[in-house]
Every structure is written in C-alpha cells, then in structure tokens.
Amino acid sequence: MKILEQYILRRVVLMFLTALLPVLAIIWTTQVLQRINLVTDSGQSVGSFMVLATMILPTIVATVLPFALVIGITHTLTTMNNDSELAVIDAAGAPRRTIQRPLILLAAGLSILSFVLMGFVEPAMRVNVRTMIATAYADLLSSVIEEKTFREIEPGLYVQISERESGRTMKGLLVADSRDPASELIYYAREGAVDETGKSLIMQDGEVQRKAPTGEVTVIRFDSYAFDLSDLSEERGQARFGAKDRNLFYLMDPDPLDDRYISSPNDFTAELHRRISASFFPLVFTIISLMMCGDARSHREARLHPMASALILSLVIFWASNYLTSLTETSPSFAPLLYILPLSIGGIASLMLATNKTPRLPKPISALIDMAVKMTQKRLGEGTGGAA
Q: Has this prediction a pTM greater than 0.85?
C-alpha cells in the first residue's frame, strides 16, 4: 500500500474509532441499564452483572459500525478537501483509486467482521444472556431481595420477608396466594427457607388463613409447612430462544420440532436474510460516502454537507431494510428485496464513481442555497464594515 493510501487509511480509521466508541458506549449503557433489575431483583452480584453487560456489547457493534464508518470517511475526506489536500492529489496526477482503494478494502474487512458478528457472535451472546437471566431467576425467592417490600412473583402470588439471613434462611415470611379463584390463602411464618433444589419453601412456626368465596375464613397453625415452588421454578429456569438467538447454521436448517419455529417459521427466514444482507452495509455505505465526497470540490458549490447527505441515505437504506424484514416475516416472497435494496443503491453509486459523476442538488434547491449564502456574506460584510 502506498504512503498516501496509508495516510488516508490511518486518518479514516482514527476518525472511525472516534465516532464508534462514544456512540457504542451510549447505546451500550442504555441497554445495560434496562437489565439493572438483575441485581436489584434477583440478588446477583455486581460481578455477574458486569459479565452480563460485557455479553451485551457484541450484540450492538454490528448495528453501529456502518454508521461510524460513514462518519469517519465523510469527515476525513471533507476535511482534506477543505485543506486543499484532495486538490493537490488531483493536481499531482494521482488516480481516484488512490483514495478509494484503502477505504474499500477497509469496508470489505468490516463487512466480513459484521457477517461474523451477526451470524455467530451476536446470537451466541444472546443465548448466554438469556440463559444467565433464566438461571438467576430459577431460584424463585431470590427475586425477593428487598426486605419489607411486597414482590409479585407472578399474577396472584405475592411474597414479603422482614429479614434475610445468610444462606437461604428468611425471617418474618408472608405469602399471599390468590391464584385459585376458589380460595385465597395467606401464609404467615416466623422463618422459612428454600430447599436446595429450589422447588419448595419450607416455613416454620406459622399459620395459614384460607378465605372461601362465601367470606368464611379458616385459620390453621403449623409447625412446618412446605409450599410447592416446582412449577414456577422450572418455568423461570427455562430460557426461551427465538430466531434472533440462533446462529446462521441453525437458521438455514431449523429444528422442525422447535416450538418457536413451528409457531413463526417466517421469523427464521426473515432473520436469516436480514443478517446476510445487513453484512453488506459497511461496503455499500462506504461507496455512498466516496460518491458524496471522494473528489475535490469548490467551497462555493451549493450542496448539503457530505456527512449529512451520506448519513441520510444510509439511514434510509437501514430503515427500509428493517421494514422489508418485517414484511418478510409475513411473507418470504419479500426476502429478495432485502438484497436488491442495498446492492442496487451500491451499484448505482459504484457506476457514478467509475464514470467520475457526482450527485448534484436540483437547480431550484441549489439556487436557494446560493441565495442564502450570498445574503449571509452580505450581512457579515455589513457587520464588519459597521464595526470598523
């Protein structure tokens, strides 16, 4: 690679990382905060929460990466144009591929990275996150971490404790069970503990109040009572995996006995084609960015900022792709459009690069921008004259 190509590539990569890392940090923080209840509700340690937060990170990289690349390319090339570096490169007789080659190679590498992330890394992380959350809630009463606070375990079942001791022992237990419309049960116990299997709550020294639909209340005291948790514990301990949690190999050949596949087979088809087509985004967005600002232009030329133009077009492709994905979930016949959309726009942009054509604003809009620029310059000139 030539020295000039290395110079351009180094600047773009630096700007790409500058745009990627802050945006990634913001989105990652919002995603992590949505799962803070893993600590507050289930009693997991901060270390477990950090492991969960780390596994979330790869699931958002592939989405942010193409847009950070657009910002890196457009900002770098626009700055080089403003500093007349692109004009000097043209004057020196360097071909356009001197600018395009390193950036297209970078985009191709990032497209491969996106394919790997979306196809294999992201679903593996999603599976780990779901499994971790299901395991954390498998011990039903671990969700009652806050003392002296009612916690709804499921509709109609509430638990409160006065004090939590080491191990599984709890003091001052209150369990209200109104799941059965035929009777309402309220359990009081001086202490209790969940057994090692997590399927029973053993309550000591308490009483149970049973209220019939007629309003009659029966009170029974007990020395020891076992409250069955097996159904709830098993339900909470089972992680359920959808199409987004499966890797590409599974999406290509789903298990015909998979409950999710049986109920929504089109979701698996849509997710498969979405991942493959979205892996082209870094390459397509790079070609669009080069089309917008890959050559030297006059500062007086009326046009939108190249970064704004490239980002708007990239966002339109991204949103349209998501819309087509939702259509594919209803009918697989829309799947080819997921490939036609980015590849056709990328092909048009490639043709414009090959023929040295640049996109231009319509003449009415260009005239309005020229008029606005002249009026601004005139006012600035009058203001400078008045100040003198």
A: no
